[in-house]
Amino acid sequence: MISELVHTAAPWGLYTTASGYVTVGCTKGMPRDLIETLEEASPGEGSGPPVFRVWGVRGRLVITRIVRVMADYTGRPSRLTHHIVIDSHPQQAQDGRRFLMSDEHWLNSWAGLPRELSMRTSLPTERAVDSAVVGGEWIARADHAARLGAHGTFALRTPCGVSVRQALAELVGASTDCAALSIATTPGGACGQRPRLVVVDSDADLPAGLIEPPMPPARVHAVSALKGVAVTPTRPKHKVHLPPPPKLSVCKRVQAEVPHSNEHAVPSWSDANDPKWLQRVVIILAITLAAVIALFVWVLV
Question: Which of 4-13, 183-192, 194-203, 236-245 has the highest mean pLDDT?
């Protein structure tokens, strides 16, 4: 199922009587939570060239196109955001590729009152595109960057001679899970949530503060194998040699493994040279002798 939502400046909206940037067109039966998500991702005032964004909402593929409107109902310049939502099904990626390569289903302005839209029953005309021009290496790199999530936002130039829309279309068409992508043609808030990957023209400068994404690990191994370069896992440059553990006899190992306290140990004859040990012996003998004398005196009495 393919549905859509149109968001622009109007005196009132389809779901509100307030003026400003509101929803003016929406496919009948679209879930309310999805409507709110699309409205939050619709920008307000601004200017610039058309912006595309490819993202996902709970398994649905969303393709967003944002264009500048020369004059709205107040006569001032504004913007129109058009969302195409493609539900999850086996041909989701190919349908998304068709919408990205077509102009016939995208709106550049809104005429008339806010209204509900009927369900789409036709798809854009298939356009033959040479995917070899884009290249599998570029697609693998872009697809990997568009899924990195918390690693930040990256920027990537299109291959030479390939437009941004064509690169996006081929990337979506080749993806195994296109609803997990997060791509846009601008890094700013014009697309709502910040994308993971920004795709720009081959001759354009990268947006300030963004760097190109790394090559996916699997692709690095594949490219190296094609070039005849052996790929080995990284190892420390310097080996650390540790001394071998000391060899202990059986008795010493037992003593080392079973710790004991010397508080209740029985003194041995080797302690005879200890002055404190001699004092203890003298005291014990004196007490014993006194006890014997006292017992003897008691018997006699």
Answer: 4-13
E strand or H helix at 27: strand 20-27
- Are residues 21 and 9 in contact, defined by beta-carbon separation less than 8 angstroms? yes
* pLDDT at residue 242 greater than cutoff 80: no
Instruction: Please check the confidence at residue 223 and state whether its pLDDT lies above 90.
Output: no
List all residues 6 or more positions away from 36 whose beta carbon is below 8 Å from its beta carbon.
Answer: none
- Residue 190 CA to residue 67 CA, distance in Å, equals 11
- Contact indicator for 105, 84 with CB cutoff of 8 Å: yes
Question: 32: which DSSP letter?
Answer: H
Distance CA 78, CA 72 (A): 6
The arithmetic mean of pLDDT across residues 237-254, rounded, is 55
* DSSP category for residue 125: P
> Looking at residue 43, what is its pLDDT?
80
Among the listed residues 2, 46, 9, the one whose alpha carbon sits nearest the alpha carbon of residue 24:
9
CA distance 174 to 301: 117
Quick one: which of 135, 157, 159, 134 has its CA closest to 145? 157
User: Does the pLDDT value for residue 224 go beyond 70?
Assistant: no
List, in sequence order, every residue forming a beta bridge with 78; answer none if it has no partner.
69
Q: Which of 184, 87, 165, 157 is nearest to 127 (CA)?
A: 165
User: In which element (H, E) is residue 289 found?
Assistant: helix 275-300
